[in-house]
Structure to design on (146 residues):
């Protein structure tokens, strides 16, 4: 279903993503992080819906549809390194800072930081061209807001 989208995203020099494609790719990254600990539950799904509702001004129905499409995309997407690098090349830096914060919201949604999730966040942060400090500050903002 997403073969053409993934081919464009992982092209050697991808064009910047339009708004809809960027939303889909970034939401798929949220799903990938949520699935990192092998426990992708309703709480994490609701957290993703809440994040995309707030971030993109979607209705609850639209947010659920976006997440479901992102779940499908994530399952078809290449390895995390190629997928995240492709997002980095296609999404502006400021948007990537917001993404790291959203990723921490998903990781911390269940109240437990798993080693797999921490490791994946370190990798993703680096691949998005963000520093460990950027990631740590995003995590602290999320923890303070909870």
């Amino acid at each position: 279903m997403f073969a053409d989208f993934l081919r464009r995203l992982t092209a050697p020099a991808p064009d910047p993503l339009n708004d809809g494609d960027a939303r889909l790719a970034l939401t798929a990254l949220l799903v990938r992080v949520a699935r990192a600990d092998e426990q992708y539950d309703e709480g994490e799904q609701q957290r993703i819906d809440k994040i995309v509702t707030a971030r993109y001004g979607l209705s609850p129905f639209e947010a659920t549809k976006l997440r479901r499409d992102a779940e499908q995309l994530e399952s078809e997407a290449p390895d995390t390194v190629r997928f995240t690098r492709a997002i980095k090349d296609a999404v502006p830096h400021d948007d990537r800072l917001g993404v790291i914060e959203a990723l921490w919201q998903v990781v911390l949604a269940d109240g437990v930081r798993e080693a797999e999730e921490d490791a994946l966040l370190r990798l993703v942060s680096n691949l998005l061209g963000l520093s460990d400090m950027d990631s740590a500050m995003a995590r602290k903002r999320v923890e303070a807001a909870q």
Observations:
- The helical segments are 3-9, 19-34, 42-56, 60-76, 80-90, 93-107, 115-127, 132-145.
- Residues 85 and 127 are 6 Å apart (CA to CA).
- Residues 60-76 form the longest helix (17 residues).
